[in-house]
Structures are given as C-alpha cells and as structure tokens.
Amino acid sequence: MGGVPDMFSGLAFLQELDLSENSLIEGELPKSLGSLCNMNVLKLSINKMGGEITDFLYGLSRCSNGSSLEMLDLGYNGFSGSLPESIGHLSKLRYLQLPNNLFEGPIPESIGNMSSLEETNFGGNKMNQIPTGFGQLSALTAADLSNNLWEGFVSEAHFANLSKLRDLNLYKDSPNISLAFNISPSWAPSFKLHFINIRSCNLGPDFPNWLKNQDELVTVVLNNARISDEIPNWFLELNLQLDEIDVAYNQLRGSPPTSLVFTSSANVDLSSNLYEGPLPLWSPNVTTVYLRDNQFSGPIPPDIGDKMPLLTDLDISQNSLTGRIPLSIGNLSTLTTLVISNNYLTGEIPGFWSNIPFLYIVDMSNNSLSGTIPSSLGSLNSLKFFVLSNNNLS
Questions:
Q1: Does some domain include residue 190?
Q2: Which of 7, 136, 187, 288 has the fewest Cβ atoms surrounding its Cβ within 10 A?
Q3: Gyration radius of the chain over CA positions
C-alpha cells in the first residue's frame, strides 16, 4: 500500500493522470499535484484515499493562466472536510465527480463561477447546503445530488440559468425529509429534463406545476415527496414516452394514470397512496408494477396476464381486492415476484406454477384462500421466499 507518488508533481507538462481502481493507493491527495497547471484529467476514483482536498484545490487556483483541469474524478474514496471556495477558480472544469466520499458542509457559492461545468456528482456524501450559485451553471447537463443531508429550500434561483439541464437526481435513501422546494406555481424552467429522480424531498402539497412544460421526460421519480393531490391532466397530456413512473409514498388520489405511454421494460410504482377503485392495467411493455398499500377493490382483472405479459414483478398487496386468483397469471412466464398478500382473495390456489419457472418470491398470506396447496409449486426451483400464512388452506 502507498499514496500517490510525489514524482508526478515534477512533471510540469503532464496532461492526464489516471490512477483509478487501484485498491492499494491510500493516503491524502498530495497538495503538490496542485502545481500541475497543464493537467487536463485527474482520475483517482475507487481507491482508499482520504483527508481534505483544500490544499490541492488552492494550488490549482494559483495557476497564473488558470488551471487546465477539465475532469476531476475522486469518487469512491474517503475524502472528507468541506469543499473550499477556491474550487470556483476551476473555470475550465467540465466534469466534477466526487461521489461516495465523506465531504460535508455546503457546496461553495463559488461553484457558480465554473462556467464550463457539464456534469457534477456530489452523491453519497454528507453535504448540507445547495447554494443559489448552483443556478449559474449554464453548461450543466447532469446534476447528481443524491444521498446527502441537504437542508433548507430549493428555489427558482437554484435553476435560473440551467437551460441545458437534462438529468436531475435528488434521490435520498432515508425517508427523513429536510429539503423543500419553494417554487412559484407560475415558474416555467428554461431546461427540458429527460430524467428526474426526487425522493424524500418536500415537493407538495400540490403536484409540481413547474413540470408543466417538461415534455421530454423519460424517467419520473417523485417518491415520498409529500404530494397530496391528483396527477393533473396536463401531465397526462404531455404525451411522454416513459421508462419509469414512481410516485410512491405520497397521498395521491383520483384516477391512476393508466393513459401514460411506456417504452420497453418500464416500471410503474404507485405504492402507498390513496388510489381506489378497480385495479389498473397498463400497456404490454410494462415489466414491474407496484401498487401495494392503496385502496383498490374488486377482483384482480382476469386478463392481467394477457394485458401485461412481460411482467417480472407484481406487488398488489395491502389493498381490498376480492375474488379468485386469475388463471392468466400463469401466462406470466418471466415473473419473479408475486405479492398479493393482505387482501380478501378467496377460492383455491391455481395449479399454473410450472408455467412460471423463475419465481423467486411468492406471498399470498393474509387472504381467505382455501383448498390444498398445489403440488406444481414444487417445480419452482428458484423460489426463495414462499408465504401462505393466515389463509384457510387444508
């Protein structure tokens, strides 16, 4: 094991240094590398390095003609401390990759001076403030701010000049909400997002009106966002071609968005909302459907296996569904997960299981199923979790 060799600091004309994915490289980032004003690319990701990077960035900020650095990738290490304001002097930087470290504190306000920045990834750190200067990154196309400790508010100023923004990731694994959007309903952003992933952030109570002109969206995740509203008609009329709609863990009501059009291998997640009425179906190219913990009632549609034949995951648990398990589920030859627990299903368990050889999880617990357990369940060689508790089986 060892650190980055000091010999590199003497190579004044070095343009690219890539020591990524060397698990034996540890220690701090040598401040002497900050004297390499001609360096365009520095990649040190996936190592065991740590410490602060303040001295390194300060060194680059003192380059007489400005640093030539265009890519800085320090991801998947143990770098820590706060980012210094001197990072704003990297006016030629296009790609800033700092994911999965231990950085804390705010993103420096000076980031707004980094006029060439196209992609930035602060994901998986402990940072807590997004400055309004972030909205001055006019070249930015992708921003990954996921899994941090952001606090306060996001306003129009944070997006003011982000006309090229296409991907926005504010996903957070923890359900705790400490960041809120404070945006006027009349605001229309200058960007056209393709990918939006916001989880555990307060967007509500209304469905975000600033998405009204976002007619190029492909992935929409607004999960655990404190939205207590209906999905508005204007969103359904954007004629989107989606690969994912995830609005789980809100208080959405009204009609489920069954008119949405999906591309291949699409995901639909409406879990933990207030939807009611008959169980909805979508187009044949949807592969995962999560509708658990709503108020859907009535029978499972008898043609569910014909209307959505490519399903791999189906979770319709914790509703008020009645009637028998449809035989068409036996047509779902690629199904791996079937969760229909905590409903009011009756009748015998069908014997179609040999037609669904890849099942990994089956949960039919807490219903009123009767009869015997079909012997064809013994053909499921991939089965890992099988739950039938609290039924009337013999």
A1: yes
A2: 7
A3: 26
CA dist., res. 392 & res. 348, Å (int): 10
Cα 27 to chain centroid distance, Å, stands at 32
Domain that holds residue 246: 39-47+71-79+90-101+110-393
Assigned token pair, 3: 């650190």
Residue 340 to residues 180, 248, 361, 363: CA-CA distances in angstroms?
A: 35, 18, 11, 6
> Measured in Å, how far apart are the chain's first and last C-alpha atoms?
63
Please tell me whether the overall predicted TM-score, pTM, comes out greater than 0.90 for this model.
Answer: yes
Q: List the one residue out of 7, 45, 41 whose CA is nearest residue 23.
A: 45
CB atoms within 10 A of CB 43: 19
DSSP 190-240: S---SEEEEESSB--SS--GGGTT-TT-SEEEEES----SBPPHHHHTT--
Q: Domain for residue 225, yes or no? A: yes
Q: Considering all CA atoms of the chain, what is the largest pairwise distance in Å, rounded to the nearest integer?
A: 83
Q: What are the DSSP E strand ranges found in 227-312?
A: 241-246, 261-269, 276-277, 286-290, 295-299
d(CA 43, CA 362): 45
Report the number of distinct structural domains present in the chain: 1
Residues 6+ apart with CB under 8 A from 312: 287, 288, 334, 335, 336, 337
11 domain residue, yes or no: no
- Residues 226 and 177 sit within 8 Å (Cβ to Cβ): yes
The CATH number that applies at residue 145 is 3.80.10.10
Q: Are 316 and 338 in contact (CB under 8 A)?
A: no
**Nearest by Cα to 329 from 362, 296, 298, 297:** 362
Containing H/E element for 386? strand 385-387
Res. 3 pLDDT band, cuts 50 70 90? confident
What average pLDDT is seen over the chain?
95
DSSP code of 329?
Answer: G
pLDDT tens-place string over residues 184-219: 999 999 999 999 999 999 999 999 999 999 999 999
Q: Measuring CA to CA, which residue among 208, 265, 262 is closest to residue 234?
A: 208
How many whole angstroms separate alpha carbon 82 and alpha carbon 122? 12
